[in-house]
Amino acid sequence: MLERPSSGQAAFPLQLAAPQVPGPDSAQPTYLQRLLQALADIGDGLWEWDLRSDEIILDRVCWAILGFEFSQVDTEGGSPFAQWKKRTLPEDLPRVEQALEDHVRERLPLDVEFRLWHRDGGIVWVRSRGHVQRNRDGEPQRVLGVLQDITGSREALARAEHELSRQRRENDNRADLLFSLSHELRTPLNAILGYSQLVELDQSLNPDQRQRLGEIRHAGQHLLHLVGDVLELARIDSNRLAPSMEPMQPAAVVEDCTRLLEPLAETRRVNLIFEPLGWESAYICADPVRFKQVVLNLAGNAVKYNYEGGRVVINFAPQAEGWLRLSILDTGRGIPNEKRIEVFEPFNRLGEEKGQIEGTGVGLAIAKRLTEAMGGRIDFDSHEGQGSIFWIEFPLIDAPVEVMQLSAQPAATLYLPPCRLLQVDSRPSGVNRLKGLLSGFPQVRHLAAADAVEAIFTARTRNPDIVLFDAALPGMSGAEMAHILREDPLTAGIRFVAVGECSGEACDAALPASFDLAQLCQVVEKCMEVGED
Fold first, then answer.
1. Suppose 323 and one of 10, 138, 319, 363 were both cysteines; which one would form an S-S bond, judging by CB atoms 3.0 to 4.6 Å apart?
2. How far apart are CA 464 and CA 448, in angstroms?
3. Are 462 and 494 in contact (CB under 8 A)?
């Protein structure tokens, strides 16, 4: 019995060393005996650290985790505390001791993962959680805790992280190769085009020679345009392109794009119409250059793949939760239903490769990547033989000044409690926006993951208090991610906040897609209060 009560301290009758499990003929087991049996069955060990004698006592499960039978412990020599410290990896021991000290002195939660040497020479990962007991005067008496073997989950996590790292390296290598090849191709192509133009200046050329030179120049320009698109795609995929976000008026950019496309529309006898519909003064936050590139790609396709005498109509319309939609409607050929999933694939021209209209097949892929990199959304609808409508959406902002203040110090009335916040968002702009909102709160640790799988890895290694996830995650959904993390004892206490629609029990709270700092503070504070309860 581990009973060393000080004056006024109630006895704690827990047989940690060798809990007695009732046999079939014994009396009805007590609640404590059932609890000890349950802990032993699931492989969790019990330990006690007596702060008055500095003695630590471990039950048989704790020693079994290290490969010892309970009867073998005394043969190793030294006290259990000395043996335990000896078997803790030197680089982990200071962190474990600091966690214990912080728990006893600062009343911080005791939950620490560390490594121990197994009896066979291997390494065992364990998770130790505990709680200090104090006497009536508030003086710490003992720490009681549970030890869990997490070697399997740690090894699985390491393998998954290694595989994820390998895939990322392969993707980066492919993007780097594509970027380098595209860059190197530009120099000889420019030389070919330059010399062909010089030769065309020769007045002695006959019409047949001049026509062939024109074909060389035309083919060279098409190839140069293709290389430029490939270079742009590689720059995006290798994270070499960082949008320069700023307040901008999309109507002004669209008007400029229509002027640039008017010659092409006249050539193809397509009526190009821009209808701002009262949104001339609206503001969004985007990269003006990249936004213009997206509009030119979408509107250019609408003109190119239209019928003679057809129309292209560009207009604005408000959407739910403060978003603004820019729609580009055409009366062209439309897209067959069976090819809808291929629309945003690079180098896929949806069967137009043999047609008379030139193209690279990467314009829509670039438009999608750029739109999402700026924090926007892109989609389309189409009916074969009737036409298509592509649209992009961005959050409206009230005034440029407010947007510029996203990274400024927050108002004194706003408060965020100390916490670790894991953001799951596939859009770099979304991550950067939240970083800006949190920049004035040094007590909040911001973590980021691009998808649900990466978020699970991060949650298990970084122990966030809150997971803030986009309701429209690519791949595994936020609901599936939340279910997996809630089933894991390591991450069961995390609170989940959905950005957008929150379905069922997938989240503890929700934020609108265009949430502001005040809304964020309110939700985070509420989640932390619930977590403390």
1. 319
2. 11
3. no
Beta bridge partners of 424: 449, 469
Is residue 321 scored above 70 in pLDDT? Answer: yes
Of 117, 4, 85, whose CA–CA distance to 52 is shortest?
A: 4
Cα separation, 386 vs 54, in Å, equals 82
What residue type is assigned to position 65 of the chain? I
243-403, which class in CATH?
alpha beta
Cβ atoms of 390 and 327 within 8 Å: the answer is yes
* Exposure letters 81-90 (e unless 16+ CB within 10 A, then b): bebbeebbee
Burial of 276 (0-12, 13-18, 19+ CB in 10 A): middle
What confidence tens digit (pLDDT) does each residue in 354-374 have? Answer: 555 655 668 888 899 899 988
CB atoms within 10 A of CB 164: 13
Pull the structure tokens for residue 257. Answer: 């794009």
Phi, psi of 20 (to 5 degrees): -85, 120
Alpha-carbon dihedral 11, 15, 21, 25, rounded to 10 degrees: -50
pTM of the model: 0.44
Contact predicate 307/333, CB 8 Å: yes
Alpha carbons within 13 angstroms on the beta-carbon side of residue 185 total 17
Domain 31-149 carries which CATH code? 3.30.450.20
The helix (run of H) or strand (run of E) holding residue 158 is helix 151-200
The answer for residues whose C-beta is within 8 angstroms of residue 297's C-beta and 6 or more apart is: 363, 364, 366, 367
CATH architecture observed for domain 408-532: 3-Layer(aba) Sandwich (3.40)
123-162 pLDDT, tens digit each: 999 999 999 999 888 899 989 899 999 998 898 988 988 8
Fold type of domain 152-241: Helix Hairpins (1.10.287)
